[in-house]
Specification:
The protein is of the alpha/beta class. The chain has helices at residues 25-36, 57-60, 77-86, 127-141, 170-182, 222-231, 236-244, 273-285, and strands at residues 5-14, 40-47, 65-70, 107-110, 113-117, 153-159, 187-192, 210-215, 254-256, 259-263. The protein contains 8 helices and 10 strands. A hairpin with a 2-residue loop joins strand 9 and strand 10. It is elongated and about 60 Å long.
C-alpha cells in the first residue's frame, strides 16, 4: 500500500545556529527535496536557535496531523529533553525531569493538533553505509601520494560528545562497532570534541600510518569546518583565512605527527536522507 500523507504535515527539527548559516542549510535543502516529492500536504522546518522556532511547529503548518523528525545524529539531550519540552510532549507539563529521564509519549494532541514525534535520522541503520561511503569517497578524490588499502587505515568516526546526556555518544559508538565488525579497516575508533577519547588524541591512539576521519554531523558548520580542523592541528588563524577566502579548511591528505590524515565532509548532503526521514515517519505512523 502506497504512503498517504497528503493531508499531513512534516516538520524537520534541527539545532540551527546564530553564528553560522551553514548549520541549517542541510535541513532546509531536505525540506525542498521532500516537498518536491509531493508525499506530504506540507513540509516545513523549525529550529532551536533560528526562526521558525521549535515551539512554533504546530502553528507553522495547517494540517491536523504533524510528523516531527529530528535532523540530528543521536538520541541525546536535544532529542530526549529539549524537543519534547518545546513541543509540549513532556508529560510533566513543565520539564523539571532529571537529566536523561524526560518521559513523553510518541504522539500527543498539542494545541488541537496531533503531534507524532519520530526518532532522529542519525540512529537509522543505513548510516553505517553512509559513513563508509564517505571514507572511501574522500580518499578516491584525494589519492596523493597513493590511496592506501583499508587494511592500512585507521578509521575515526568523530562526534560532538557531551556530559549532559550519556546517550549522545551512543550513535557514534554503535557505528564504530558495526564498521569494526566488517573487518575492512586496520582499526576503527570513535573520537569526540568534548569527551574522551578526544579528537586531538587520534594520532597517538592507533599504530596505523594512514588515518581517515569522518565527522558524524549533519552540517558542514562551525564544528566540522572550523573546530575539528583546529583540534587536528591546523592553526586557528590559517583556518579562518581559508574560510574567509572560500578554501577548504583541511587539505587532504595532511601530514600530522608522522601520519597522513584524510578528513571528509559531514553527511548532510547524502542523497538518501529523504528516504531515511520517510522511514522514520512510517515507523511512528504504524
Amino acid at each position: 500500500m502506497a504512503d498517504d500523507f497528503s493531508n499531513d504535515a512534516l516538520v524537520l527539527v534541527a539545532h540551527g545556529s546564530t553564528v553560522n548559516a551553514q548549520s541549517s542549510a542541510p535541513t532546509r535543502r531536505l525540506v525542498e527535496e521532500i516537498a518536491s516529492r509531493n508525499i506530504f500536504g506540507e513540509v516545513a522546518c523549525a529550529f532551536n536557535l533560528e526562526e521558525p522556532k521549535i515551539d512554533d511547529a504546530p502553528r507553522i503548518v495547517s494540517a491536523q496531523r504533524i510528523f516531527v523528525v529530528p535532523v540530528t545524529i543521536s538520541e541525546g539531550h536535544f532529542t530526549e529533553e529539549t524537543i519534547p519540552f518545546r513541543l509540549k510532549l513532556c508529560t510533566k507539563g513543565q520539564c523539571d525531569c532529571p537529566v536523561g529521564e524526560c518521559h513523553y509519549p510518541r504522539t500527543k494532541k498539542v494545541d488541537g493538533k496531533q503531534i507524532y514525534y519520530c526518532k532522529p535520522i542519525g540512529t537509522h541503520e543505513s548510516m553505517t553505509e553512509v559513513l563508509c561511503a564517505r571514507a572511501v569517497d574522500i580518499m578516491a578524490r584525494h589519492p596523493f601520494p597513493r590511496a592506501p588499502k583499508p587494511a592500512e587505515i585507521a578509521l575515526f568516526i568523530a562526534g560532538h560528545g557531551t556530559k549532559k546526556n550519556a546517550n549522545s555518544r551512543k550513535a557514534i559508538e554503535a557505528q564504530v562497532h558495526s564498521i569494526r565488525a566488517r573487518g575492512d579497516y586496520a582499526d576503527v575508533q570513535s573520537a569526540f570534541m568534548e569527551e574522551a577519547p578526544f579528537i586531538a588524541d587520534c594520532f597517538k591512539a592507533t599504530e596505523a600510518k594512514y588515518l581517515v576521519m569522518v565527522p558524524f554531523f549533519i552540517a558542514d558548520g562551525l564544528h566540522t569546518v572550523e573546530d575539528i580542523p583546529v583540534l587536528l592541528g591546523e592553526p586557528a588563524k590559517r583556518v579562518k583565512e581559508r574560510l574567509e577566502s572560500g578554501q577548504p579548511t583541511w587539505r587532504n591528505p595532511t601530514e600530522r605527527q608522522g601520519k597522513l590524515m584524510w578528513y571528509s565532509e559531514a553527511i548532510g548532503s547524502e542523497p538518501h536522507l529523504p528516504d531515511v526521514i520517510l522511514e522514520r515517519v512510517r515507523e511512528v505512523a504504524a
